[in-house]
Amino acid sequence: MADQHRNFDRDRRAVRRRAARLASSGLGATALVAALAATLTSAAQTPKPDLPPRTPDLEITDAAVRYQEDLNLLVFDLRIAGEAGATTPTPHGSFDGAPVLGYVVPTTLPAAAIGFSGTEGMVALAVTSHPDFDDTPLWDESADGDYANDGELWHAHWVLLVEDARAPGGLAVKEVVDVDAEILPPTNAPVPLYLDSPGFPVDLAADGVRVVVPAPRVGGETAFSFDAVTAALVVNTSDPSRPTLGVQDVYGVLSGDLSLPYEVERDQG
Length: 269
What we know:
single chain; alpha+beta; 30% strand
C-alpha cells in the first residue's frame, strides 16, 4: 500500500505538470451529446487495454431519478440486466494506464450546482470501480480503518465531461488548467480534474445500483434531464497526446443516442 501511495503521488505530480500545459476545453451539453453518440460504434471497434468484456453486468435496462420531497433527497436508480457491480476492472499495476469502470448518469445539471466553477461541460454522476488507486481520501468505504485501499469498491463521483478527440471514446473528464484559479469542492479528488468525491452512499442490489444524493448537494436543483451509460475510462499520466482520464469504450447508452430524454420524478412521500 505504501508503494501505491508513492506511485499515485508521483503520477499526480505528473498530471499537474501536464495540466499546466493544456488548454481547458469546454463544450455545451447539446454538442457533447452528439459527440458521444457519434463515437459509440468507433469506440467499440478500437482495441482496449485491460478492460472488462461486455457482459449483462454492464447492461442498463432502466433508469430513474426520484426526488423524495419529504426527505429532500434525490435517488438515482439504475436497473441492470446482470448482477450490478459484479464485473470490475483487472488491476493494471500502476496509476498510469489504470482502467476505470463506471455506471454513469449524464445530466443537464449546471456545473456550479455541484460545486465546480461555472465552466462548460456535462455534469454526470459516476459510480466507479478502479482497483489500482483510491481517490476518495476522506472516505473509508470498506470501514476497515484504511482510507486508501478502497478503489475497487464501487463509489460515487461527480465528473464534468467534455469532448476530447484524443480519447478513443471521444470524451474525457475535463482537466483543470489552473488549480488555484478554479473553484473546486473540498472533496475534489487529489488530481487536477473536475472529479469530485462527494461520499454519497452507493447501494448495489442484485439487479440495480442506487445512489442517494441530498438535494442541497446539487444546489436544490430537482428538475433536470438525464440518461444512463456504462463506460470504461483509462488514466494517462505519461502521454501528452492523450487526455488524463479519457473514455476508452462505451458499453451502452440507455436511450440509444444519449439524448437525455428522462426527467426527474417527484415523490411527495
